[in-house]
């Protein structure tokens, strides 16, 4: 095998470059930021869709619990499609509530490269308290 091509030029093999792991702390062009934002939004939307589908599997139990919370009041459906629409709204609300940790994680992963180290530390320190406040608020609404 000859290192000289048919045109008389010398062909040298290109040096192989080691693959770099993506460094999220470097500045990127706006298109890269928008691509990352799109990916994070798609992941969040998929999480909401999956948890909504999971909630829709258990919608009879969820609606039974909500109807029991109504107490002595009777539940009525005025339109023929109102019951199905209500089931979808409740399943979406439960799915959104269940996927909140994933959404917060995706937001943090998108914002973290732009924060200073002390801001990151403060933000990640406050995340457990935000989760506790969310659960406490949901429990307050339930009881």
Secondary-structure element pattern, one letter each: HHHHH
Largest sheet: none
Strand share of the residues? under 5%
Distance between the termini: 81 Å
Shape: elongated
Range of helix content: 55-70%
Tags for this model:
143 residues, mainly alpha, 66% helix, 0% strand, elongated
Give me a quick take on this structure:
By secondary structure, the chain is an all-alpha fold. It is built from 5 helices and no strands.
Structure in words:
- Helices cover 66% and strands 0% of the residues.
- The chain is built from five helices and no strands.
- It has helices spanning 30-57, 59-69, 82-98, 100-111, 117-142.
- Helix 1 (30-57) packs across helix 3 and helix 1 (30-57) packs antiparallel against helix 4.
- It is elongated, with a radius of gyration of 26 Å.
- The protein starts with 29 loop residues before the first helix and ends with a helix.
- The mean pLDDT is 85.
Layout: helices, strands, pairs:
Layout lengths: L29 H28 L1 H11 L12 H17 L1 H12 L5 H26 L1
């Amino acid at each position: 095998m000859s290192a000289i091509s048919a045109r008389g030029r010398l062909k040298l093999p290109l040096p192989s470059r080691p693959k770099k792991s993506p460094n999220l702390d470097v500045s990127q062009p706006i298109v890269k930021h928008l691509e990352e934002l799109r990916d994070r939004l798609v992941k969040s939307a998929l999480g909401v869709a999956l948890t909504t589908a999971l909630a829709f599997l258990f919608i009879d139990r969820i609606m039974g619990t909500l109807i029991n919370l109504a107490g002595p009041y009777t539940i009525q459906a005025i339109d023929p499609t109102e019951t199905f629409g209500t089931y979808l709204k409740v399943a979406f609300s439960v799915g959104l509530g269940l996927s909140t940790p994933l959404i917060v994680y995706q937001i943090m992963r998108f914002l973290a490269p732009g924060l200073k180290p002390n801001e990151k530390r403060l933000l990640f320190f406050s995340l457990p308290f935000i989760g506790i406040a969310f659960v406490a608020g949901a429990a307050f609404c339930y009881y």
